[in-house]
Each structure stands twice: as structure tokens, then as C-alpha cells.
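Inputs:
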Amino acid sequence: MSTFTAPKGTYDLIPPTSAAFLAVRDALAAPLRAAGYGYVETPGFEDVELFARGVGESTDIVTKEMYTLTTKGGSELALRPEGTASVLRAALEANLHKAGNLPVKLWYSGSYYRYERPQKGRYRHFSQVGAEAIGTEDPALDAELILLADQAYRSLGLTGFRILLNSLGDRECRPAYRAALQDFLRGLDLDEETRRRIEINPLRVLDDKRAEVQAQLAGAPLLRDHLCEACRAYHAEVRELLTAQGVAFEDDPRLVRGLDYYTRTTFEFVHDGLGAQSAVGGGGRYDGLSEMIGGPALPSVGWALGVDRTVLALEAEGITLDVPPVTSVYAVPLGEEARKVLFAVVADLRRAGIATDFAYGGRGVKSAMKSAHRSGAWFALVAGGRDLADGVVQLKNMESGEQEPVALDAVVDKLRSRLG
Ligand code: ATP
Ligand code: MG
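Outputs:
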């Protein structure tokens, strides 16, 4: 160990488990890539005001969880706590919405930062795969995204998750509901901070995790009883499309989620094997966000799936991903001359697209063969002075132990056909 350890609330991804993490990230993104979503990558930090406006001044993310910094040039920046505001900012900046091809469908993958109380499944640096479909109001688009997330989790073999679904209404029906909810909440016995929240963003109070607060919320008015006709019809169609696809979901009239910008469809994927940090992913429609950050009206919908928690969900279900070994061939030189010859063979194999590794450090055959086994390679190439004098290397099948001499200039072709 060095003098240093990873910062509190963070962890390192290291082999061999890092391979599973990469595989999870790829699996979460695969359905998006096959559904017309293009890759977008934005900076790890943004103007702090983008998140203040885009995520919401009254959210925990903005008030408590953001890593903010002032640059030497005096700019106020924040490490990104989530992806949606940045991706929408980037799409607007590049005028993607003006190219006459709506919705703009984008996917992303990367690191996010929140100053939270670290717990299992809750870190200060974590990884998400996300998707945004910008500029179109269509219940089929909301349904598509929920389907793609469902497909992503299932492709990993996960079954122990549930989909929670709700509608948050729109600017037509939400104000009246908000007022009704405020009336109800003002009559409760709540602390100072929560009372302030009633005035700024009362829906967030429904999201309060404390049991003593939840107990008082039993009779709270529900948005589903206050939806306008357009929101009601929209939500009914989302539900219908999901049902027609055989996707099971649960109506959760209390589901509001932590961000201010959601409208209409809102959903969360929860996994029952994860304890308190049960949300593996979530998202929804955010029709007002573009205008909140100074853009035109662009109704949009998106989600973000947590890679770290998905890995924990796999563990909870006892699923080990079948991640094939990266190395196909491992070269073991015996002696100085063989080292140079095999080093060239390794380079040739790699140029031919065959994943190959090499026993560096002039080690003895025993220790080198141990590394060959540990690499997961199908074949070892072993050569000493006598082999080279005969113009051959020994090709050893790591599983059967069988060994045969192969002419040096035939090694690449031979391995190509053996590895199929
Ligand atoms: P939670 O209610 O657990 O705090 P959230 O609503 O803040 O989650 P989102 O902002 O919707 O989460 O982020 C999408 C997903 O990212 C979550 O469902 C979760 O899987 C993951 N995630 C969010 N925060 C963290 C974190 N601090 N550590 C690990 N994963 C996280
Ligand atoms: Mg959170």
C-alpha cells in the first residue's frame, strides 16, 4: 500500500472484476445503439448555473451534493452530478434540434459526482449509462425508452427488478395539484427545512424517505386524481404500449424522483436485492427543461441507469457474467534468442487481430507457463534454442496439453484457423 488510498466514497475498478463492469456498461448501451441513439460525450464539468437551473435549485443534488469549484480564471464550475442537463446543453449548442430530424436521440456513458453519505450502492463517484430523446412528444417514445432499459437489464440475466411508473402532469394540471398538495402539507408536523420545501417544491416532500414523514403523507392528494385530459390520455397510451409488449410495471402515484424538471411520464427501475439503495435506474419526460436553460420548447424524455448498482444487482442474483478471456495466445520464450524471435511473432499475431501476450522479464518456464494459464489463453507458443534451430515454435493447447511444432512462418495462419 502507498501513503494514499482512494478518496472517501470512491473505489477503484481493477482486474479481474473490472471486466464485468465493462461488460455491464456495454450491455446497458447495446439496446440504445440498436435503436438509433447516437453517442454523445460532454465534459466532466459544466458551468454551475447549468445544473442549478437544469436540475433545480431546491433539489438535494444542487443544494447538498454538488462538487463546485472556482477556476483560476474565476469561473464557477461543478463536476457533473447527472447527464441530462449537459446533454441537452450540448444538443442545443450544436443545433442538433434544427437539423430537421426529431427526436434527436443520444446515448452516453461516464462518471458522475455527488457529495453523498457513502453507503453500499451510494458513492461519490459513480457510473451511468444514459439516453435522451429530444424534441418530440409521443407516448411511444416514452414507451421505447422503458422497453430499452428493460431489455438491457434482461440481457444481463436480471429478473429481480420492478418498474415503477407515474405521471407528474404538465403545466396545465400541475399548478392546481401543487396548490392542493401545499394546503395538505402545511397542516402537517414537519421540520423547518421540509416546511421550506413545501413552498419551493412540494412534490419533493412526497419523496421524503423518513418513516415519520411518510406516515403523515398517507392521506396526501395524488397527482393521478388531478391530471388534465391530455396528460391522462398520454399516460394511458404509455401504459397500453408497455402492456402490449408484455412489460410489467407498477403504478406508483408517489413516485416523483429527485429532479425538478420532470413532467408527465416518470419511472424508476428498482431491484429488490439491493437494500436501501434499490434504484438501479430511472428517468422520465422533461418537457420544460430546454426552456429552463434558455433554449426553445423541446419536449423530451430520457433515463439514466446506474452501472455500479447494476453490478451489485447481478451479485445479489448470483449472476456471473460469462466474460471471455481477453488473451487468446501467450508466448513463452526460453532464452535470449527466442525472446527476440517470439517478440516479433507476437507483433505479427497482434497485427493479424489475434489477442496475444508475452512472458516479459526473462522468467523461467514454470513461472511463465503459470502466467499463460492465468491469462486464460487458448494456446501457448513456446520456443527455445533447439526449436529455433529447426525453424519452428511449439504450439501448446492449454486445455488438452497437446503440443505440436509449427513452422515459424506458418504460425499466424495456423492460429487464425485454430481460433476460428
Ligand atoms: P437515489 O434515490 O438512490 O439517490 P437518484 O434518484 O438520485 O437515486 P438518479 O439521479 O435518477 O438517482 O440517477 C440514476 C441512477 O444512477 C440511479 O437509479 C442509481 O442507479 C444511480 N445513482 C445515483 N446516485 C448514485 C450514487 N451516489 N452512487 C451510485 N449510483 C448512483
Ligand atoms: Mg440521489
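Remarks. The mean pLDDT is 95. Residues 353 and 416 are 9 Å apart (CA to CA).
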